[in-house]
Structure formats: C-alpha cells, structure tokens
Write a structure and sequence with these properties.
The complex is a heterotrimer of chains A (about 425), B (about 190) and C (about 240). Chain B is mainly beta. Chain B is about 10% helix and about 70% strand. Chain B has a single domain, classed as Porin (Beta Barrel), CATH 2.40.160. Chain C has one domain: Lipocalin. Helices cover about 15% and strands about 55% of the residues of chain C. The longest helix of chain C is centred in the N-terminal third of the chain and has 23 residues. The chains are: A alpha/beta (about 425), B mainly beta (about 190), C mainly beta (about 240).
Chain lengths: ~425, ~190, ~240
C-alpha cells in the first residue's frame, strides 16, 4: 500500500505543473478621458519623434528611450528588458494627454501608463505644428492592474540622426507582428496582428502562406493544425488536407480569430496600414502561383494608389526555389532568397536573406549592395546580438520577433 | 543411509522447496489482451459530441524474476464522434460529421505491487486517425502524437498460464491535450516460461 | 563415494541457498546509484542512462515534441568519512555536459540522505542547417537527496538548484557573453531503483525542471525571460 501511494504521489506531483502564462490586461483609461480630446494631426506627431532622456522611471526603462509615432499610436521603446509603451493620445485646450500600457518584450510584465505634455513644455507648440525641442512628457506607471502611481518623466534629448532619418532600414516583424509565444493578445499570422504591428515600430511584416486542399491561399505557419496556433477543434492533421471552408469554419486561431486568406491579409496591408514591406514566405510549394498572382495584383493597386509598398515572394528552401525559377517570367517577380548568393542572382531576387546565426557577413552583404540588391537577416531576437547587428552590420533590414528592441537600437544610432 | 546423509538429503529437500520458489521466479513472456469501455475527456464545448467508445489493448510483456516487467503495447481506442445537421457557416449550411480514434505504439513498464495488483506505465506514440465530412468534402487526416498510459491492473490466476482481471487505464494525448479513462477486462496468457 | 555424494549434496545446498538469497535479498548499497547510501572507501558504482524531456512549445515552436534523447554516463566513487565523488557526462551529440562534485552521504537504517554540489562545463556546436554557432558555459548545481530502501527497491528524491556561472556564444564573427541570469532555477526528481533481471538494476525516474535556461535546448535561442517547466523521463542501467 505504501508503494502504491508513493507512486501515485510522485506522479501527481510531476504532472501537476504546466507552462501556462497568465496575462494581465491593465486598465488604461478607466474614465474614458480620451473621448473628450481631439486627435493630433500628422505634422504635430512628427515633431515628437526623437530620443528622450528618462528623468524619472529609469528603474523601469533605463536612461533613455525612443519616442515615435506610427499611424494612430505613440510608441516608446527602451533598451531595458525590451521594454516599450504604447499610447493613444489626444489634446484638450493646449495640453496633450496619453493613455496606454507598458510591457517588457521578453516576459509578460506589464502595467498601465499615462502621460501629459503641459502647454508650456511643448504641448502648445506641438498642437500648433511648430517645431520645438522643449518637450517633456510627465506621467506615471503601475504594475499589473494596480493604479499607475510610479513617476515616469521623459525629456526631449535629440532628433533621430540624419543616417536614421534618410536611411530606409526595415524593421521587419515576424509572423505578421509577433509570435503567439509573446502573448500579445492576438494571434500570429492574423489580420488582428498585422493591424497592431506598426505599434511595435514595424515597417514591414513577414507572413507565411499555405494552400488549402481546394486551392485557396491563406496565412498559417505550421504544417498541421495544432494547439500552438489554434484552439481545440474537431479536425486535426496536415493543414493541406482540408478545404478552405472546413478550415475557416472549424478552426479558430489561438486568440479567437479566423484564419485569414492571403488576399485578405495583403489587402489589409495595402488599405489599412502604412507598412512598406511584406516578406511573403512560401511555406508550401503549391501556393507559389497563387502568391505570385496576388502579389502582382496588389503591387499594381499600390502603384495606382501612389503607395510605397514592396512585396517579396520568399524562397526559403530548395524545393520552393526550384519551383520559382520554373515559373514563367520569374525574373520579373520581386523575390527574397534565403539560399546562396548564386541562387539569389539566378532567381534575380531583390533581396538576399541569410540566417542570423552566420553572423554579420559584411563582405557578402556589401557584394549584394554592389549588385543593387538588399540584404535582410532573420530571425534575430537576442537583444545583445540585435545591438551588434544594428551597429556593426550593414543589413537593410532585420526580421525579428522583437521589433520594439530593434526599433530602440536602430533609432538611437 | 547414515544420519549425516539423511540430514543432508533432508536439507536439500527443504532447500529445493525454496528453489521451487526460485523456479516460480523464472522468466516468462505473457500476452495480455484488454477490452472495455473508454470515456474521452476534453475541453471542447460541443453538446452533441459522443465521448463513449471501445478501448482495447494488446501487450507482450517480458516478466523477469523481480517486480518489474517490460514490454510493448498496441491497441485501439475510440475518442469521439459528432454528427450535426444544418450547420450554419459563412459558406452556407451543411451537414457536418467528424470522428477520431487512436492506435498506440508504446513501450510499457509494469510493476508488481502485490501478487495480484500491478502498476502499468508506458509511453510512446499514438497514431491519431481523424475523419469526417463537411460540404460533401471528406475530412481525412492522420497524425502522430506522443503520450502516456498509466494504469492499475488486478489479475487473478485461473491456472498456471492464464490470469484474468481488470484494468483501469488513464491515457494522455499530448498533441490534442486531452485524455481518456478506460475500464478494461484483461486476459493474460503466459506463452513462454524459461 | 560417500564423500562424493556429500560434496555434491553440499554443493547443491550451497547453490540453492545462494540462489535463494539472491532471489530474495539484495544489498541495495551495492546496486543503487541514486539512493544516497553510505559508500565504503574506493567503492565504485556507475550508470548508463537515457533521458528525454517534453520541451516547452513556446521555445521549440512545436506543441508535441520530446527532446532528442540525452545519453548520460555517471560514476560515483566512495571516499573516507562518508564522502562520495561523483562525475558524469551527458550528450545529445550537438551538446556535451561534463559535471563533477563531492557529496556527503548519511544513512540511518533504511533512510539515506546526501548533500553536495556539482560544477559543470557544457558546450554546443552546430555548423549545419544555416548555423555557424558555438556556445559554452559553466553551471553549478548544489543538491540534496533523500532515499528509502524497501525490500526489493529503493525510491529516492533528488533536488538541485541551478546557477549559471558563465556563458558565451559565437555566431559567425559575432560573439556575446554572460547574458544569462545567475540563478537559473531548480529541479526535483524521483527515482525508483530495482532489479530488472538477475542482479541487473535499472532506474526509472521522472524529473521536473523549472528553469529559465535549459542547456540541451540552446539551439532554440530562447529569449524568453520566463521559468519553464520541463518534465524529463529517464531510464538507466546500473553498471
């Protein structure tokens, strides 16, 4: 009997643990104050972009931060634990108000954050669209669902350097903006993720295309229906075994979204975002013709709209590469090749994209530049390496799961 | 016969009784057949989901002279099925059906805790078979999942080679993060002893 | 003839009795590795094992995978005054982990305890599949064990704290070092040791690890600042 109980107890102990993560969603504007404010115009927003000194709150975000507007959010990036803040803002009288949340990229620590810019500390000038370097954001932050009562103050230090302003460096976010394992509240490779990608400083996204049994292209990374990407459903197995109707009806992504079609995703990027680059990774050889056709259509529409948008067909593996170079007119199809330099040339790819684990490969990158091609690197997440690659490398873009960290090191250059 | 020899023979005879115990602890190979009822446990929320079905196991176990035995197992376990008529979707209304069963391929360990009770534990892979129909398109898919079995078995020997009994078996499927509990009748046949 | 008969009978008696003893009793201190018994000076026991672990899906990006098996060889050598020296090597072919350290064992009847600390050096190298990576580090494992001896098997519990002393990695020409937190986490394992056949003892063990950095998983380049629960199962032969 002792032995039985002992065995049961041991097994119960071992199997009682799991890796589930509890995510707190901080309450950011409980009185809905922002509804009373007016939105800032585009020129006003640009005035705020720059590098700021952390006067109070260095224990949270370090000594300096980058502040940058994107579409409809103000983002603040720091070098400490990949910390960032995302804020919504508006002005009332001559004071600008912000409400939002802070978060560390590499874990799930988060909390509410709020700021105001007084009229005499930059608020007035910004609202009128007058350039100023006297900008002070005065605010507070909290932890989890606690009230934000820890002081947080930023003071404008300098603009972004000319190299940063004039350069065309791409901050590329993996899987549409981030992975499920970042616990951002939205699923990777979803419209909802693409919608918030720019808040992380992203200028472009990488998305993964596959083909259903009945020939519909959609976004999905893994090759099977699994619990990493989806909620439990009645169908399991290789995703190419199912029709689009079956997938769309029976499969729900991890955070409750539906699987988007490739058309939906590209049209969203074109019409609803300011993203300028799409790395369209080819997860399945069979999706290539559909991806290329959609790429051509969307690029045409972008040109008609006067939109600066690049869509590259990703060639990650030999079988995809072989299928691509067999495609009629492949030389005119903008592509991104992850293989050798020779294969980049043979496919007439616009971009060479090696894995980061090969190092900065400066000689090879310079060679690509000399031939009029770009070089991206993937998928770089380690903060110390991101800093090294930004400062010592010559890549035109870095694909990362932490665009907030990359944004920090890029904009402080 | 002299006394010493009588004593020696007596002692040997007594020792042989112990030796008989040793010969009771010889090695054997057994085939174990289990069949019974299985209940599927899931967090999926479908009212019409049928979670009751058949469970069967076939094991070949090597039983050395001590407490621990080791062997291989396969079998069949029904997981679930569902049938829905007039299911509303963004593509129209359809009848929908789906089902899943599994075949384990496991390495099994079994430990005798009393003469009749054994603790069984195994791990390996499950072959998951998923099928169904929606919009007149068949759903057919197979997958592999890792997983584990834990069970408690009670068997009673009917004769030298046959035992019967029952087993309560818990199974966990890592791919789908669901489990079953099965109650099986067990038939054990010792087909080799050495 | 009489002498021959008696000799034969005696030999049979001895064999049977010995076999009987072997069938019924073992000196667990001669056959167990994890059970923290006292060692006599220069007593040596070694083990050869295989372990596998269920890796966290956040890191390996798959929801259903066991780590490639980790092979391990460990050796314990008895020293005076209840001390034991232990060392070992673990490998999954792209990673090697060498450890060594002292333990102090105390046994009171069927109950045994031990306390010790191991220092380990590990390194990994991968130059295929788009990698040009070398990584290495030093770790420390203070540990505590307790065990109980039953008639036919022992059960032992071993717990360790895990510390990162140093770590460096190199990818191409880029190199970083000491990027890991000093306190890495802890582990606890339960080990059943018993004979499988004859006097061949085996160990069935389950270990729970709660770690920020799990060294066999280095090639996943996890950047998550989280403690992960990684269960391991182990099967070991005592040599």
């Amino acid at each position: 009997m002792k032995k039985i109980l002992l065995t049961i107890a041991s097994l119960l102990f071992i199997y009682s643990c799991n890796n589930e993560v509890d995510i707190v969603n901080p309450v950011v504007d409980p009185s809905n104050f922002l509804a009373q404010t007016k939105p800032l115009n585009f020129d006003s927003k640009l005035i705020m972009d720059g590098v700021y000194e952390v006067v109070k709150g260095a224990e949270l975000l370090g000594d300096q931060v980058v502040i940058k507007w994107n579409r409809d959010r103000l983002s603040i990036f720091s070098g400490k634990n990949g910390g960032y803040i995302i804020l919504e803002g508006g002005y009332l009288d001559s004071v600008i108000f912000f409400f939002g949340h802070w978060r560390y990229s590499t874990n799930t620590e988060t909390g509410a954050a709020s700021f105001y810019i007084p009229a005499d500390e930059g608020g007035g000038e910004i609202i009128s669209g007058d350039t100023t370097t006297t900008i002070r954001l005065i605010g507070t932050y909290g932890f989890g669902n606690e009230i934000a009562n820890q002081p947080l103050v930023f003071k404008f230090k300098r603009e972004f350097s000319q190299e940063v302003k004039q350069g065309n460096f791409d901050i590329l976010a993996h899987r549409g903006g981030g992975r499920n394992s970042e616990y951002l509240g939205v699923s990777e490779n979803s419209i909802e993720m693409i919608n918030i990608a720019e808040r992380f400083g992203t200028t472009g996204v990488e998305i993964d295309a596959r083909l259903s049994k009945d020939g519909v292209a959609f976004l999905y990374h893994d090759n099977d229906i699994n619990l990493r990407l989806t909620q439990k459903s009645l169908i399991w197995g290789d995703i190419e075994n199912f029709t689009w109707a079956q997938l769309r009806t029976l499969v729900t992504l991890k955070n409750g979204e539906k699987i988007p079609s490739l058309r939906e995703a590209l049209e969203f990027v074109l019409e609803e975002t300011n993203l300028r680059t799409v790395w369209l990774d080819t997860k399945d050889v069979d999706v290539l013709p559909t991806s290329i056709a959609l790429q051509q259509e969307i690029l045409q529409r972008a040109a008609q709209m006067g939109r600066d948008l690049k869509i590259y067909i990703g060639l990650p593996a030999q079988d995809v590469y072989d299928a691509f170079v067999a495609y009629p007119g492949f030389q005119d199809v903008p592509s991104l090749c992850e293989l050798s330099l020779d294969q980049v040339r043979q496919a007439n790819s616009k971009v060479w994209a090696p894995r980061w684990t090969q190092g900065t490969q400066t000689d090879a990158v310079q060679q690509m530049h000399a031939e009029g091609k770009k070089a991206f690197v993937w998928t770089l997440d380690e903060p110390s390496y991101i800093e090294q690659f930004v400062n010592d490398g010559e890549f035109d873009g870095i694909l990362t799961n932490y665009p907030t960290i990359l944004s920090y090191y890029h904009y402080i250059k | 016969m002299k006394l010493i020899n009588k004593i020696l023979v007596l002692v040997v005879l007594i020792a042989c009784t112990s030796f008989a115990q040793l010969t009771d602890s010889t090695y054997s190979l057994t085939a174990e057949f289990g069949a019974g009822y299985s209940r599927y446990f899931t967090t999926m929320d479908y009212n019409d989901l049928n979670k009751n079905g058949f469970s069967g196991t076939v094991r070949v176990m090597w039983n050395p002279e001590h407490l621990l035995s080791v062997g291989l197992e396969t079998g069949y376990q029904y997981l679930y099925s569902i049938d829905i008529s007039n299911y509303d979707t963004e593509f129209g209304t359809t009848d929908f059906s789906a089902s899943m069963y599994t075949i384990p391929i496991f390495i099994m360990f079994s430990m005798k805790v009393t003469p009749n009770i054994r603790f069984n534990a195994g791990t390996g892979m499950y072959l998951l078979f998923n099928s169904g129909n929606m919009f007149d398109d068949a759903l057919e898919s197979n997958q592999i999942s890792i997983g584990g079995h834990f069970g408690v078995a009670y068997t009673y020997p009917i004769n030298k080679n046959i035992s019967v009994g029952g087993e309560l078996l818990y199974s966990y499927f890592s791919k789908i993060q669901d489990q079953t509990v099965a109650l099986q009748f067990v038939f054990v046949y010792k087909f080799l002893e050495y | 003839m009489k002498l021959l008969l008696r000799s034969h009978l005696l030999f049979i008696l001895i064999c049977v009795s010995t076999a009987n003893v072997l069938a019924q009793q073992f000196n667990m201190n001669e056959h167990t590795f994890f059970y923290p018994h006292t060692y006599y000076s220069s007593q040596m026991i070694s083990s050869l094992g295989l372990s596998t672990a269920k890796l966290p899906e956040d890191v390996v990006e798959t929801d259903d995978v066991f780590r490639a098996p980790l092979f391990s060889y460990r050796l314990k050598y008895g020293l005076p005054k209840n001390f034991v020296a232990e060392g070992g090597v673990e490998t999954n072919l792209i990673t090697f982990h060498f450890s060594a350290g002292p333990k102090w064992n105390y046994q009171f009847d069927k109950l045994g305890f031990s306390v010790g600390a191991d220092i380990a050096y590990w390194f990994g190298k991968l130059e295929q599949f788009g990698f040009d990576t070398k990584t290495s580090g030093w770790m420390m494992y203070p540990n505590l064990s307790a065990g109980y001896k039953f008639d036919k098997f022992t059960v032992s519990v071993k717990s360790e704290l895990v510390f990162n002393l140093a770590e460096s990695s190199k990818n191409g020409e880029s190199e970083i070092s000491n990027d890991l937190d000093f306190f890495n986490g802890w582990t606890i394992g339960v080990y059943f040791e018993q004979p499988l056949w004859n006097d061949q003892f085996v160990v069935l063990g389950i270990r729970s690890t709660f770690l920020n950095f799990y060294y066999p998983m280095w090639a996943a380049f996890s950047t998550f600042d989280r403690t992960y629960y990684i269960p391991e199962a182990t099967f070991t032969f005592i040599l």
